[in-house]
Amino acid sequence: MNEFAVELRDVIKTFQTPEGAPVNAVDHVDLEIKNGEFFSMLGSSGCGKTTSLRMIAGFEWPTSGELFIEGQAQGHKPPFQRPVNTVFQNYALFQHMTVYDNVAFGLEMAKTPKDETRRRVGEALEMVKLGSMEKRYPKQLSGGQQQRVALARALVNRPQVLLLDEPLGALDQKLRKEMQIELKLLQKEVGITFIFVTHDQEEALSMSDRIAVMSHGKVLQIGSPVEIYERPNCRFVADFIGETNFLQGEVRFIDGDKVTVYVPDLENEVTGTGYQTFHNGQQVYLSVRPEKITLAERSVLNHNTFPASVLQASYIGSDTRVLARVGKTVLKVIEQNKISTLDPEAYFQQNEQAFATLFPENTLVLPMD
After folding, report:
1. Of residues 253, 289, 245, the one with CA closest to residue 270
2. For residues 128 and 148, is the Cβ–Cβ distance under 8 A?
3. How many CB atoms lie within 10 A of CB 339?
4. What angle do CA 163, 168, 171 make, to 5 degrees?
5. Is residue 234's pLDDT more than 80?
6. pTM score, whole prediction
7. CA distance 131 to 27
8. What percent of the chain has pLDDT over 90?
């Protein structure tokens, strides 16, 4: 078996705008998706993730570059000649067919013997926990059950790669969370490669082995959920994945991976950690997650600790969200509620004075570009 289920090598997909100008929806993309991994393409609308998925499926063809599935160049092969299946956001179920007939449709089109069809449909429905509902019609199912039928229909053909185009987008929040867990468990059970397209960062973080973050047709960073969240390589990725605070400044001193930056809004120097190459005088961003800022009544460190004034505090159960003025800027701080108490003094209140600490290991230095 080839190490990579899917490879995109310098793939470009160009469309014409209504005004007649060419635009690269996918712009020099290189991707290597490993066999058996849950891989997500994440980005906002128009970033190129769905176009990339459609090229893997064969619904679109690259303008240039090449796409490989299991080491085989796909060129301009139509979808039915590719070892992939796609699950769409709208499920695309046949409303006049039973659950059984929907799942069996692809096998029947391929002239699969009836006994084998019945066995494989039964296995696929058991896999998605719908074994008792094969005689129902789609309109008699909930949204989550319809989603499972679409999954079973895709899996019954035993594709080498399953493509999922925002498949949970039509579900309500609670059901969506449940389906995220089920999808991940299902992927581990069947062991095939899942390529998942979403604009929901939390969804990608909770389900994926690796994530490609895309913007304007380009892949900005590929990594595990931990790498993408803890070590974003640019401002866009840091901003898109989760919440963060940005401070702008100029590099003053470098000692290994510790970078000291003068921040005008704080009228002070802040030491952060840089995992890229920087030089003195360079304009940079400091990125620090709200939950990694410590807000306390006393100064915690001799440096990177600044007087703060609480502008707003919102108790939301698991944590308290605080907006604190520090120097000329406002920082978002998330304080986890670790104790169970009704005492208002246990939580920060508006106009309270405190100290905000930005620990160097949690303060990420990023290039300005």
Report:
1. 253
2. yes
3. 8
4. 160
5. yes
6. 0.89
7. 44
8. 64
CA 77 to chain centre: 29
In sequence order, what E strands does the chain have?
Answer: 4-16, 22-34, 38-42, 64-69, 72-73, 84-87, 161-165, 193-198, 210-215, 218-223, 245-255, 258-263, 268-273, 283-288, 293-296, 305-315, 319-326, 329-336, 353-358, 364-367
**How far is 183 from 197, CA to CA, in rounded Å?**
13
Q: What is the pLDDT of residues 71-121, one digit of tens each?
A: 999 988 999 899 999 888 777 788 999 999 999 998 888 889 999 999 999
More confident residue, 92 or 163: 163
Exposed e or buried b for every residue in 155-166, given b needs 16+ CB within 10 A?
bbbebbbbbbbb
Residue type, 39: F
Grouping H, G, I as helix, E, B as strand and the rest as coil, residue 149 is helix
Say how far apart CA 365 and CA 261 lie, in whole Å.
9
Return the ∠ at Cα 3 (arms to 29 and 67), rounded to 5°: 35
Query: Which strands sit side by side in the sheet containing 329-336, from one edge to the other?
Result: 293-296, 353-358, 305-315, 319-326, 329-336
Looking at residue 343, what DSSP letter applies?
A: -
Distance CA 172, CA 166 (A): 13
Which distant-in-sequence residues (6+ apart) come within 8 Å of 181 by Cβ? none
Over residues 277-284, mean pLDDT:
96
Tokens of 340: 């169970």
User: What's the mean pLDDT in 255-269?
Assistant: 96
Task: Give kind and range of the element (H or E) at residue 227.
Answer: helix 225-230
